[in-house]
Specification:
Blueprint (H helix, E strand, L loop, with lengths): L1 H19 L4 E2 H24 L4 H10 L6 H28 L7 E7 L2 E7 L3 E2 L1 H8 L2 H12 L3
Helix pairs in contact: 1-2, 1-6, 2-4, 4-6
């Protein structure tokens, strides 16, 4: 149970961080969101499998930390998180596909001891102008709201 709580809280924090920051958006923050979504889903399914073994304890624990009052309520809210995550992932796919290729990968010339060589460079961030559109996406807002409905 605690693993699910931790994963959900960390994911919600990552989502809010992406939304609330300004300027260039490092890719690692989107990685944190996507990794968090996966961890939250896996941990949530584990709770659904294990909670019936100690239902009263599980429900008491969830309620004591501001989460759903019952496993049934948690399951219903998890469905809403899944719907919002699916919409977010569809948006994110389109967003990344719409970026110029140089925002994802480029060949650069580097000079070492007067010798020029070409290297593959993966930019570490999404430029501020493009990141602003991602931060303003209704899919991001809906996903944050779904996590907050679970108590995150």
């Amino acid at each position: 149970m605690q693993q699910a709580v931790d994963a959900i809280l960390q994911t919600a924090e990552s989502l809010r961080f992406v939304r609330d920051t300004q300027g260039d958006l490092p890719w690692m923050y989107l990685d944190a969101v996507q990794n968090g979504l996966r961890a939250s889903k896996v941990a949530t399914y584990a709770v659904f499998a294990e909670a019936p073994k100690q239902l009263a304890f599980a429900e008491q624990h969830m309620a004591s930390i501001g989460g759903p009052a019952s496993i049934a309520e948690y399951q219903a809210k998890a469905v809403q998180v899944e719907i919002a995550a699916s919409a977010w992932n569809a948006f994110l796919t389109g967003f990344v596909e719409g970026l110029p290729h140089t925002a994802l990968i480029a060949i650069v010339v580097q000079s070492y001891d007067n010798i020029q060589t070409k290297h593959i460079e993966r930019p570490g961030f999404i430029a501020a102008a493009e990141a602003a559109a991602l931060r303003a996406a209704p899919e991001l807002a809906a996903l944050i709201a779904a996590f907050e409905a679970v108590g995150a």
